[in-house]
Here is the input.
Amino acid sequence: MLYATRMLGLFMVLPVFVLYGSEFEGSTPALIGLAIGAYGLSQALLQIPFGALSDRYGRKVMLYIGLVIFFIGSVVSASSDTIYGVIAGRFIQGAGAIAAVIMALLSDLTSVESRTKAMALVGMSIGVSFTLALILGPLVADLGGLRAIFWLTAALALSALLWSFVAIPNPTVKTKHRDNRVFKDQIRDVLRDSELLRLDFGIFVLHFVLTAMFIAIPVSLVNSAGLPSQDHWWLYLLVLVGSFFCMVPLIIVGEKHHKMKMIFCLAILLVLSSAAAMPLAHSQLGWFVVALFIFFMGFNLLEASLPSLVSKISPAGNKGTAMGVYSTGQFVGAFLGGVVGGMLLDLYTETAVYMFSVCLVSLWLLVALTMENPKHQKTMTVFFRENLDSSEVSSLSDELVRLEGVEDAVVVSDGVAYLKVLSTKLDDNALERLKQQYS
Here is the structure.
């Protein structure tokens, strides 16, 4: 609920900002692009500090602070008469960078066995928020312009604050903190992994292109295709729902037949072809809808598969760090996409935005073609005796990685082991003997 409510407020401006931004004094396409992307910059800068502070001062304290900051940013944007005030408000909105805090809180409040499902629900909530935002954004803006969206976002922030106070328990977590050297080593290992870097570059490009394209797409729909802004909601509903149902079979085929690299590259090709087709089709509504449908089909495929690939490729003990770097790339991409897209629209036309996106996605496709096909792995959590000493932890770790089918293993002192395994090759009998030995 918290994640979905917050993202709904942020996403609602995306399909309408470029159309209604002229209501603010001093607005230009370049400044509108900066306003769209400003939240991504503060998000990228503050995700890690907020997460670290939540470890020290508590999850809900930082959650309250982040939601209050988000509320203040929404009010600043809603109350502004100039585009510079809106830019400041958007930056303040992003400064309430509580995504990492929410995920950490979720981890505190769920069992190890149910955590993966809980994380998946958060991912689903983001997709639902994005879909609702593209539909609600044009409807709300038609009633009261961008200010109405910002006031609604402020109200959503207050409701999230109330929800977190009333409905979410406050966990008491005691843990031994890792020292700075270990944390730095984790970041270094993630940044040295070429496969992870390919995926980090991918999420950067995907959100760069998404933000930039939504500076151009509404303009094309109004000026070239002749579709009034108040009618955009039904078009987005049509293409989003349709593309989602067409995406699901491809994901199933990729996972079932171990063809995720092929599906991944196909999705990039869909985004590339749609961006290339939009300048040719933007004067004909029917063909432009087809191009938009192809874009969202590729986007949904990539948005669903990228986190999964990061999880599969990253070492079992470095998943959190890998996802932190991945999220930073996502927010930096959103920021730069808004800035560059706005500048291109200001200096040229929406066609320049599409062509720049084509170049960037083409580079991504070349990078993706060099990636390895992910192994068909799964993550297992195995429970041993809780009071293992340091020598037993070390010995158990060595024995686990020697088991056939175990690709990676992390053992913690409370008797929990996180394994990355090839399920078809795992020696279940040997694993069971280890569980009895360390029980």
